[in-house]
C-alpha cells in the first residue's frame, strides 16, 4: 500500500537533497542532532518506550526487520534479504541477512529475532511494541500468559524464519519502528544491557549523560558497505524551542525542530528561511477522554467537547499554522484519508444542547493532564479552558513531565489528557489502536470498545482487494469521528531547520527527526570536527 506523503519543502531543504546526490559523501565528522520532545530520554531500552524522543537515538543504535524507505514512501526489508509469501497471504518466510553483527561482534541469527518478539509480547511488562507483534499468530496467547512462545514464529535454520500472520497485511508496516528492534538474545535480558545497550545499527553506544545527551560512534562492521559516513552522532536533549534556536544560530547543532514562534521567525529571516524543511507527518494531536469517568462515557458529551472548541482559531493563533486541522483519526498522509470528511464545526449552542440531552445542562468538572509542550500541551489547554467554560465545563489542569505523561496515558490514570500519537503510515495498524482486543498499554489509550468498529476492522484485515480494504478503513474512521473518543485537534506539520553543511536529510520520513543516520554526512564547512 503506497504511503502518500504531502511534502512542502522550502528553499535549501530541497537543495540539500539535490546536493547529497550530486556530491560524493564525505567520510568522518560529527552529526549533532537534537531530542526536542522533553527534558529527558525515557529509557535506553527502546522496547519499553513509545516516545518519538527515544526513537531519535534508537534509529542510529538499533535495527528492525524492516526500515522506512523515504524515496519509495514505504517500509522495505532491512535485516532480511527476501520475503516469500504463501498460505493465502498469511505466511511470510524471511531469509535473514548473514552479515549483520551486533555491537559486541556476534552475528545476528533467527534466535535473536524470535527472542526479541517473544520479549516484546511479555504481558507482565506491557511493552508498547506489542501492538505490532500482535499481528503474528499466537502472539496474543503469549501476552495473556497462555503460551511461552509465539506459535506463528518458527526457526527454519539460523538465517530463515517463518512468520504466520493473523491478517493479510504487509508486515513491513508492523516491523519497521524501533519499538520492534532486534536485540541480542544472550545480552538483552541482562541488567547491564539497559545501561549499555547493544544493537545492530550503524552507530554503537558510547555514553548517556541523563538530561543532557547520548553519544554514539561509528560501528565499523555495519552491513551496508561504506556506511555510516560520520564518525560520531551526538543527540542533545533540548526541550525548549528558544534554546534550540540559540544553538542553531550559533552553529552548535546541525538540525533543530522549530516551534511555532521560530517557524514564523525563520520564514521571515533571509539568512534562515533557506534552512527550513517542512513536511506533513503521520501524527494526530488530540485530547483523550477516559470513558470510565462518568460524563465521558456518554458519546454526546464527547461530541459536545468537539463542538465547544474553536479549533481553527487555536491552530492559526497558537500553532501559527504549523499543523493541519484534524477531521477524524487518520491524517492527510494516510492512504485511507477521506477528503470529503469535514471537521467538527465550532458550535457552542450545539455543544450546550448535547450536554443538556446527556443530563449535564449545568456542566461538570474534570481534570486535564498535560505536559508543557508548546504545540500540543499547556498553551493549548490554557486556550481551550475558557471555550469549555463557556458551555459549562470546568477543566482543572494537572501538569506533568512529558515522560510521565507517556506513562499516565498507557496506564489510564487520567480523566482526560492531551497528546500526540502516531496515526500512520499504515491505516489498519493505526486504527487497530481503537480495536477492543488492543490492550490500553499498547495504544488503546482511551480503552475504546465498539463491536461495530471491531467488525469493520476485522473485515478490512482479511480483505484481499486493496480498494475494498480502503473503503472499510474509511468507514471505521468515520465511525470514530461520530463516537468522538477524543477531541480531534490537528495533524502534525513537522518543521526542521537544517544547517547547509549537513547532507542526506530525508524529506518524507514518518517523523522528521527519525532519520536513517547512516545516510547523513557533513562537509568540510561543518564547525564540528
Architecture blueprint of SSEs:
Layout: E1 7-8, H1 12-22, E2 30-35, H2 52-61, E3 66-69, E4 74-77, E5 80-86, E6 91-96, H3 110-120, H4 130-133, H5 139-143, E7 153-157, E8 160-164, H6 192-195, E9 203-209, E10 213-218, E11 232-237, H7 241-249, E12 255-257, H8 260-267, E13 276-289, H9 294-297, H10 299-308, H11 311-317, E14 323-325, H12 348-357, E15 364-370, H13 378-390, E16 393-399, H14 402-411, E17 416-422, H15 427-431, H16 451-462, H17 466-483, E18 486-498, E19 502-503, E20 521-522
Parallel strand pairs: 2-11, 15-16, 15-17
Antiparallel strand pairs: 1-13, 3-4, 5-6, 6-8, 7-8, 9-10, 10-11, 12-18, 13-17, 13-18, 14-18, 19-20
Describe the 3D structure.
Pfam families: SBP_bac_5. It comes from Bradyrhizobium vignae. This is ABC transporter substrate-binding protein. Belongs to the bacterial solute-binding protein 5 family. Residues 1-22 form the signal peptide. The structure is a single chain. The chain has 529 residues and is an alpha+beta fold. The protein contains 17 helices and 20 strands. Strands 1, 12, 13, 14, 15, 16, 17 and 18 form an 8-stranded mixed beta sheet that branches. It has a 4-stranded mixed beta sheet with strand order 2-11-10-9, covered by helices on one side. It is globular and about 65 Å long. The model is unreliable at 1-21 (pLDDT under 50).
Short description:
With 529 residues, this protein is an alpha+beta fold. The chain has helices spanning 12-22, 52-61, 110-120, 130-133, 139-143, 192-195, 241-249, 260-267, 294-297, 299-308, 311-317, 348-357, 378-390, 402-411, 427-431, 451-462, 466-483, and strands at 7-8, 30-35, 66-69, 74-77, 80-86, 91-96, 153-157, 160-164, 203-209, 213-218, 232-237, 255-257, 276-289, 323-325, 364-370, 393-399, 416-422, 486-498, 502-503, 521-522. The two termini are 42 Å apart.
Amino acid at each position: 500500500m503506497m504511503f502518500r506523503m504531502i511534502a512542502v519543502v522550502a528553499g535549501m531543504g530541497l537543495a540539500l537533497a539535490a546536493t547529497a546526490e550530486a556530491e560524493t559523501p564525505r567520510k568522518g565528522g560529527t552529526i549533532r542532532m537534537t531530542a526536542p520532545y522533553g527534558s529527558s530520554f525515557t529509557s535506553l531500552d527502546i522496547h519499553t518506550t513509545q516516545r518519538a524522543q527515544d526513537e531519535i537515538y534508537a534509529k542510529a543504535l538499533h535495527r528492525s526487520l524492516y526500515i522506512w524507505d523515504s524515496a519509495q514512501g514505504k517500509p522495505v526489508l532491512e535485516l532480511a534479504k527476501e520475503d516469500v509469501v504463501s498460505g493465502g497471504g498469511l505466511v511470510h518466510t524471511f531469509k535473514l541477512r548473514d552479515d549483520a553483527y551486533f555491537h559486541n561482534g556476534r552475528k545476528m541469527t533467527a534466535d535473536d529475532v524470535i527472542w526479541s518478539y517473544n520479549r516484546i509480547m511479555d504481558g507482565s511488562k506491557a511493552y508498547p511494541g506489542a501492538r505490532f507483534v500482535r499481528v503474528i499468530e499466537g502472539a496474543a496467547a503469549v501476552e495473556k500468559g497462555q503460551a511461552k512462545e509465539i506459535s506463528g514464529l518458527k526457526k527454519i535454520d539460523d538465517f530463515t524464519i517463518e512468520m504466520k500472520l493473523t491478517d493479510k497485511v504487509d508486515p513491513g508496516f508492523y516491523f519497521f519502528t524501533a519499538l520492534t528492534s532486534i536485540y541480542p538474545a544472550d545480552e538483552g535480558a541482562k541488567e547491564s544491557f539497559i545501561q549499555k545497550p547493544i544493537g545492530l545499527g550503524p552507530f554503537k553506544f558510547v555514553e548517556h549523560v541523563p538530561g543532557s545527551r547520548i553519544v554514539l560512534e561509528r560501528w565499523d562492521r555495519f552491513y551496508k558497505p561504506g556506511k555510516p559516513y560520520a564518525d560520531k552522532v551526538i543527540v542533545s536533549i533540548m526541550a525548549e524551542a528558544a534554546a534550540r534556536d540559540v544553538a542553531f544560530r550559533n552553529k552548535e547543532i546541525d538540525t533543530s525542530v522549530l516551534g511555532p514562534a521560530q517557524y514564523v521567525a525563520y520564514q521571515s529571516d533571509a539568512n534562515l528561511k533557506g534552512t527550513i524543511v517542512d513536511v506533513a507527518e503521520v501524527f494526530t494531536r488530540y485530547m483523550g477522554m477516559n470513558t470510565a469517568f462518568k460524563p465521558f462515557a456518554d458519546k454526546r458529551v464527547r461530541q459536545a467537547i468537539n463542538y465547544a472548541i474553536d479549533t481553527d482559531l487555536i491552530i492559526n493563533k497558537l500553532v501559527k499554522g504549523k499543523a493541519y486541522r484534524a477531521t477524524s483519526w487518520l491524517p492527510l498522509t494516510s492512504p485511507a484519508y477521506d477528503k470529503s470528511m469535514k471537521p467538527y464545526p465550532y458550535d457552542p449552542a450545539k455543544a450546550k444542547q448535547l450536554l443538556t440531552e446527556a443530563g449535564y445542562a449545568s456542566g461538570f468538572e474534570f481534570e486535564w493532564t498535560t505536559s508543557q509542550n508548546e504545540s500540543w500541551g499547556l498553551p493549548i489547554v490554557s486556550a481551550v479552558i475558557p471555550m469549555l467554560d463557556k458551555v459549562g465545563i470546568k477543566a482543572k489542569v494537572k501538569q506533568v513531565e512529558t515522560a510521565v505523561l507517556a506513562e499516565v496515558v498507557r496506564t489510564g490514570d487520567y480523566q482526560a489528557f492531551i497528546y500526540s500519537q502516531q496515526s500512520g503510515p499504515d491505516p489498519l495498524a493505526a486504527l487497530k489502536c481503537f480495536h477492543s482486543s488492543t490492550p490500553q498499554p499498547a495504544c488503546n489509550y482511551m480503552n475504546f470498545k465498539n463491536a461495530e468498529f471491531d467488525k469493520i476492522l476485522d473485515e478490512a484485515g482479511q480483505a484481499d482487494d486493496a480498494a475494498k480494504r480502503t473503503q472499510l478503513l474509511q468507514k471505521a474512521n468515520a465511525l470514530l469521528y461520530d463516537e468522538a473518543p477524543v477531541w480531534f485537534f490537528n495533524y502534525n506539520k513537522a518543521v526542521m531547520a537544517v544547517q547547509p553543511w549537513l547532507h542526506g536529510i530525508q524529506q518524507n520520513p514518518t517523523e522528521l527527526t527519525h532519520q536513517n543516520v547512516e545516510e547523513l554526512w557533513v562537509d568540510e564547512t561543518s564547525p564540528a570536527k
